[in-house]
Write a structure and sequence with these properties.
CATH topology: Rossmann fold
Number of strands: 8
Bound molecules: the ligand O=C(O)CCC(=O)CC(=O)O
Radius of gyration: 17 Å
Distance between the termini: 28 Å
Shape: globular
Mean pLDDT: 98
Order of helices and strands: EEEEHEHEHHHHHEHEHH
Largest sheet: 8 strands, mixed
CATH superfamily: Alpha/Beta hydrolase fold, catalytic domain
Low-confidence stretches: none
Strand content: 15-25%
C-alpha cells in the first residue's frame, strides 16, 4: 500500500473506486488501522471513491514520538487530501477518527461535502485517565489493554459469533506501536472540541452504538445538539467499534446519507 509524506508524517493510505467519483475519506479509531473499514466499504457501491489511511502512529503511518493534538491529526487528513489533489470530500471517522473529522470540519468548514461521526465525542475526560492509559501502553505494550478494549468494542454476542473478525481486530491492536497509541491518548485527553461544533456547517450524520460504553449515545446527542445540521442514528446491538460490529447497518445509513448529499 502506498505511503505519502504529509509534513513530518508518512501516511499509509489506499484510494479505491472510480476516478472522478466523489471521495469519501475514512479516519480510523485509536488502536485500529484502515482495515477497520473493510466490511463497511461494500455499502458504498460503485458511485464513490474511498480514501482510507492509517492515523499517525498507527499501522503503516510512522510518526515521531512527540506530543500531538487532535488539530495535528486534522492537519494530517487535510494534508493527505491536498497531496492527492482532492479538494472537497465526504469525511467519515470513528471515535478518534470522528474527533479528527470534527476538528477539520470546524477549522475548515468549506472542506467537507459532509461529515459522518461514528461512536465519537467532542470531549472525553479525564486527561488523567488518558495519561494513565498512555503510561500503561508505554510500560507494558498494547497487550496490557487488549482484553478490556475488546470488551468495550464489541457486544458479547458479536464477540462469540464473529471470532474471525474479532481476532483480526485483536491482532491489529496488538501490533499497534505503543508510542503512537500513547501520543494519540494524550491528544484525546487534552481535547475539547465543544466550542468548535457550531462552526461545522456541513451536513452531519452522527451514528452511535446503543451498547457503547466508551462513547455512549448521550455523547452523540451532545454532538447533535452542538452541530447546526446534524442528524442522529442510534444502532441497536452495537458497542464501540460499530463500523465492524454493525458494518452493514452503519454502511447502509452512511450510503443513504451520502446519496442525499452527493
Ligand atoms: O476509540 C477511540 O478512538 C478512542 C476512544 C477509546 O479509546 C475507546 C476505547 O478504547 O474503548
Amino acid at each position: 500500500m502506498p505511503q505519502i509524506r504529509v509534513g513530518d508524517v508518512d501516511l499509509r493510505y489506499e484510494l479505491a473506486g472510480p476516478e472522478g467519483a466523489p471521495v469519501v475519506a475514512f479516519s480510523n479509531s485509536l488502536g485500529a488501522t484502515l482495515e477497520m473499514w473493510d466490511a463497511l466499504l461494500p455499502a458504498l457501491g460503485g458511485g464513490y471513491r474511498a480514501l482510507r489511511y492509517d492515523t499517525r502512529g498507527h499501522g503503516g503511518s510512522a510518526t515521531r514520538d512527540a506530543p500531538a493534538e487532535i488539530a495535528d491529526l486534522a492537519g494530517d487528513l487535510a494534508g493527505l487530501l491536498d497531496a492527492l489533489g482532492i479538494g472537497r470530500a465526504h469525511l467519515v471517522g470513528l471515535s478518534l477518527g470522528g474527533m479528527t473529522v470534527q476538528a477539520l470540519a470546524s477549522a475548515d468548514p468549506g472542506r467537507p461535502l459532509s461529515a459522518t461521526l461514528m461512536a465519537t465525542a467532542a470531549h472525553l475526560p479525564s486527561a488523567e485517565t488518558w495519561n494513565e492509559r498512555a503510561a500503561t501502553v508505554r510500560a507494558q505494550g498494547p497487550g496490557a489493554l487488549v482484553e478490556a478494549t475488546l470488551g468495550r468494542w464489541f457486544t458479547p454476542g458479536f464477540a462469540q459469533r464473529s471470532t474471525e473478525a474479532v481476532a483480526a481486530v485483536r491482532a491489529r491492536f496488538l501490533a499497534c506501536d505503543a508510542a503512537g497509541y500513547a501520543v494519540c491518548c494524550g491528544a484525546i485527553g487534552r481535547m475539547d472540541l465543544r466550542p468548535a461544533l457550531s462552526a461545522i456547517t456541513a451536513p452531519t450524520l452522527v451514528i452511535a452504538g446503543r451498547d457503547d460504553p466508551s462513547t455512549p449515545p448521550a455523547m452523540a446527542e451532545a454532538l447533535c445538539a452542538g452541530i447546526p445540521h446534524a442528524e442522529l442514528v442510534v444502532l441497536p446491538r452495537a458497542a464501540h467499534l460499530l463500523a465492524v460490529e454493525r458494518a452493514e447497518a452503519a454502511g447502509a445509513y452512511l450510503r443513504a446519507f451520502l446519496d442525499r448529499h452527493a
